[in-house]
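seq:
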Amino acid sequence: MNLLGPRIRIRPVRREDLPFLQVLWNDGSVMRYQGYPEGMHATAADMERWWVALQTARPDHQGLASLPSPHTIIETIDGTPLGELTYSLDAKERARFDLKLAPRFWKQGYGGEAMRIFLRELFVTTKVKTVIMEPSPDNAPARRLLERNGFHPTPTENHPNRWECERHAFASRAADAA
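struct:
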C-alpha cells in the first residue's frame, strides 16, 4: 500500500520510522511553521505514546485505500526517509493535508512530487472535491509550491491563511504538465 512517483514513495508510517520522525519534529527549522520554532522536544517515550495512539485511531480512519493510515512517510525509492505527509478527510468532500521534509531535502523537488502524487491519488480514488492547506504566512516556499499545484488563497475570517485546490484546478494543471 504505497503511492509511487519517479523518485519517491509515500507509504504508511511504521514503528521503525519513529527515530526519523523524532528528529524531524525536534528540528526547529522544520517545525517553526507549525508553531514550534525550537522544535517539539519530543522524547523517545513521547514518540512511543504517539505510536500507540496512532494504532488505536486507525480502525476509525476512513481514508485512501492506498494509504490506510492518515500519517505517512515520504521516502526515496531506495528507502531513504525524506519527510512526512499527513491528511484527513471530512464529510463535506474536503481533505486537509500537511507536508514536512527534512531540511537536507529542501529545494530538490521532493515536496512537489509528493504533493502531486498525493493529490492525484486523492482526486482519482475519492469523492473529495476540495483540498485545504493553511501554510504559515511567512512560509513563501510553501505558498509557491501550492500555487504550482493549482491552489489559490481563500482566506476566511477564522482561517486567514487558507489555500484551496479544487479537483478541476488540479486536473487542469496535470493536463498542462503532461
